Amino acid sequence: MRHIRSHLHKGKIVAFIALLSMFSYANRIVVDKQDGSANDANPGTEALPKRTIQSAANAAQPGDTIYIHAGIYRERITPPRGGSSESMRITYMGAPAESVFVRGSDVWAPTWSNLSGNIFYAVPDEAMFNDNNYKAPEDKNPFKVRLWDDPTAAFATGGLTKGWTCGDVFVNGERYWEARPGTAPSAVTSRKWFYDNATGRLYICFPDNNTATKTVQITTRRRLVGPKIQGLAYITLKNIIFEHCGNNSADWMDNNYWSIYCGYIWGAVDCEGGHHWTIENCVVRDIRSIGIRIGYHLNCSKPSTSATPETGVSGAADAHHNIVRNCIVKNCGQQGINCSLNKNTVADANTGYCQIVGNWVENNDCLYITGYEDAGCKTHAFHNGLIADNVFINNICYGLWNDWQTYNSRITRNIMIGNTFSGIFYELTNTPNASPNYYDNNIVVRNGWYCIAIDDAQDGIFAHNLLEGQGATAYPDRTPVENIQFVNNLMVSCSPWGTYAAGNVNSGVTYTWNAATLTLTLNIANNLPFTGAANDVAAKMDVDFNKRPYGAVPHIVGPFQDLKQGSNTYVLRPRGGITPAKPRLALPHSGAAPFSMILRERMATVVNKQARPLTLTLIDAQGRTVMRSVMAPCMSGSFLVPVCGVYLAQSEGGGVTHTQRFAVR
What we know:
Immunoglobulin-like; disordered N terminus
């Protein structure tokens, strides 16, 4: 220090000491379980890394980065503290170009007993289930906990032995599916499992009787990331793959969502009412219920705190300014992303509101729960928020569901395609102080029900979208549906609806979609006045789908401001460098879906939404016709699917053919 003083002025010395002080708290704590010298007693350097992420979390202080090298980390991460500001975050970071897995499962290699054929069973050791203790009726063993929103409720008579569980089984990396509650162990079919709560036996039916070739993983933890202190702030998760979690689900109708049971709802990755969390460049997949949750649960008797299933939880929930960015969220049993009660008090353009941006959200609600809380992304009380540049694709539910008191938010430049229900569901919203929600420059096509469903909601502006389907529909069963505007939309087999409509084009537009290359080709008739958009684009709508700025009036109808007559081809790449999974089966398609289908195991209920007869054909993966039925106008019917697998349901009526993919597990 004497040497420093001899060469620096007094003011520079003060600044230098302040810099040293800052760096003394900004450490890198290295975790590398594959390093032979790794030990949680180590200081966490590259030479002497820690073995578990939790050990690093316990040591981390504001400004620190937990730097995680490749490996499968079978643990729950429980942050004991958060950061103190944007510049002093605590960051959990997978090393770039390395595969870091956090799993809520463990390898299970018991001594198997053969029941019959390819059905084997064993009793998991309770010592495997080492997550935190839970309040009754929950348990640290997910196989002993009934899934609240039971997807087989129609077949259940109550009680754990009659309901699905929160457990999951993976064999050689493949997810096996729980057999229908009440199934006799001897009747479990291939690639399925059954847990007998009375005996503790877990029965698995393998495709053959060679158990020596099977690596079995079972869920043993109830969360993957979840603090036990509510309201922790300034935490970043990045470059991590989160898999396998035995968490519970949300159900509004059957289990009193807004009261006590809401406390048993959490995401596999969960901020627990915290604020200024950023979850980016992560993968969250193969989760029993909800993938990511960046809000908190509401207990009506404790509006500022959260009822929690865990013991020893403290602190007050205060969720706001949370971000989910550039993540892949797929194969979650109920919701991909949950953003409930993320009440941002101001729309802060500098630090970001609550943002759900640039994500690929696919095949969620894969348990076919089809209840009141199922969506690729579900929000409640979404205030001053932004949902932009996401792909909501092939979810077995709604693509995006904005529920209960959404206001002053923007939903822009998203793709909603191939979702079983509507692409967008806008519900129970009465915005204060003239703070409407803007749905602009989205592509909403090929969804199973209506392109947009509106239920008891007001003050929504739908502008410059590409919409296909049976159109927007309104359900004013509790409060009026009013102040809904449709402006400057391109519509295919869809008509404008709302309190106010202007500048929409709903004829002369066709398109083709290439699922393999994510390419959309829009064909605009030569006589179509597609530049005749109403000149009332809101100030918020500054750029189009491809982020081209709006030019001088007249504006071009739809989400592309470079649209021209004739053929227009757009490659719809998701933002942020996300590499999506290989696209699934591309479907022949014409017009809006004339039927809807709800699946519960092998039982399918189909509704003919047309005022004319409909011929429905069921085609298996080999192209064989396995069922054909003629349905009366506006009538419903149920049938039993012969075997589990992937099917196409093809309808014919009025000269129009429509094909929809679905899976039965």
